[in-house]
Every structure is written in C-alpha cells, then in structure tokens.
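Good morning N.,

You mentioned wanting to compare the apo and holo forms, so I went ahead and generated the holo version with zinc ion. This is what I fed in:
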Amino acid sequence: MQPVEQLSTPFETIHQPADGFSARGPKTREDLTRFEKIDWGGSLAFFGVHVIGVLAIFTGISWAAVAMCLFMYYARMFAITGIYHRYFSHRTYKTSRFFQFIMAFWGTSCGQQGPLWWAAHHRHHHKYSDTPEDIHSPGLRGFWWAHWGWVICKRYSDTREENVKDLTKYPELNFINKYHGIAPLVLATAIFFFGSFLEHAAPALHTNGLQMLSWGFFTSTTLLYHGTFTINSLSHVFGKKRFETGDDSKNNWILSLITMGEGWHNNHHKFPFSERQGIYWWEIDMSHYVLKVFSWFGLVWDIQTHPKELFSGAGNLKKEAAL
Ligand SMILES: [Zn+2]
Ligand SMILES: [Zn+2]
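and this is what came out, ligand included:
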C-alpha cells in the first residue's frame, strides 16, 4: 500500500552497524566475554533503584505515598509510550522543537537512558523482529534475556547513532541523550522535598520526605522498568495475533493496561507508522487519549493512524487479504 510506504520513511534510514549489531547468541566463551558481559558500572543506577525500591517497606506506607507511586508510574509510562516510542522511535506525530525538547527531558526521568538510545534500539527491533538479529526476541533468546538481560549488557549500552540520524541533527537532543541522568536526579529531589513539605503542612497524611522519595521515585521507577520490559518479553509470546506480521508480536489487553496501550503490539507491528495502537474503541489505548488531548491544545499535530482502507463500511476490519 503506497501510503504506508511513504509514512515509514524513518525506517529506511536504518542500516547495519559495523559489528553487525547481531543478537545471535555467543558461540564461544570468548564471544560472551567480548560482547555480552554485564555492564556493572553502567548498570549501577539500575540495580540501585531496585534495591532502594524494595527498601521502601522500611519507610512505612501511606495513601499519599502510594498515590504518588501510581501517579509517577503512569506519568512516566506515558513518557515511554507516547514520547520515546510513538514520537522518537516512530515519528507518528509532529510537535514543535521546544516541546520536543520538553518531551525528551520528560522521557529521561524514567531512567531508561536517553531518547536517541531508546529509539535506535527500538528501530532495530522493528527491522529485525524475531530474527537472529533482533536484540530482544524472547522466542529466540528466552524470557530473561528479552526482559532485562540485554538492557544491562555492555554491548548494547551505546547509542547506535546511525539508526537515528533524523534525531541527532538536533544538538539539544544529543545533549539530553548524553546527560540523561539529570532528569531522574531533579525528579527524585523534588519528590523528597514535596514529601518533607507535606510532613509539616499536612501531618494527617502521615508521610515524609524519605517515604515519598522511596515510594514515589524508587518503587515507582522499578515498576516502570518492568512494566515497560513486558512489551519485549511478554508481548511477543502471550496474546492474540490479528495480523500476519512475519514476527511473533501479539495483542494483549492486560499488557495494554499496564503500558498505556502498548499491549496492542501486533497491531503496532502491522502499522508502526500509526500513533494509535488500539484499533477498536474497546482496545484501550491511554497514550493515544493523552496525545489527543495534547493535540487539542496545539502541543502536537498530524497524528497518524491506521489506513482508512483497513475498515469496511460497518467499521469492521476487512479481511487481511483485502489489504
Ligand atoms: Zn515488538
Ligand atoms: Zn515500535
């Protein structure tokens, strides 16, 4: 279909990096040492967030802290799905350069590296989904590797800039990609002071700075890591396959609730240029609703969707053969 080809332009710029960027399993122990050892130094913050997140049980619990945990989870899950994924990886809508920067900063608050790193790896996934070149195929390399093994692996810690040339032309994005640790530090500090403020201003809430910091930032960030990772580890395994896409992507409503719409992953692999990933009204896609509201305020525009030819007059999906 011609319109589809035109809209998927960003993917055409992808080419194979020098080392092949292959995710094939190491053939020898030497390969393993060279390419796929854990990046302990680089993953220190990642492990630290988990440990402190668990230690939240020692700071006590309050409704205010749990509410902050949930709020920070979904506010930042949107940053992963609506921003890192649907904007930086797939360019499924347009925005201003200023708001692009704001969105990039928001995205880095998730602790999942910078927007260029994230988009470069994700574009690679779409190009090689569930083939030996795919970095995180659960079918080929197992659940744990797909879930977080590759994330802490030294081999994939660098930004593959050749995959994101359309983004590296913006100096401010390169800056924020490099200094992606700023936003999490700012956010953690702000949450701590907010908790300290509430301790004195609203003692009935029974919270304090440390409790708010541990639940609102560390526990929330840990949950956010694993909520995000389910798309790599589970949505290529569990669910229903509506479209033949040449990979193992599935549609899964539970994962969609956890990830604000990303669980409609088979739809997404079929139409990666479409911002909207739920096709029917009952395929709840929270990220799409948020972006729709953004568009009402002029923050984003030109939101792409599934091709109109996909639907028959009654709004039903036509048979795949008709596409
Ligand atoms: Zn996928
Ligand atoms: Zn994608």
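The chain has one domain: 38-322.

Happy to go through it together on a call whenever suits you.

Best,
F.
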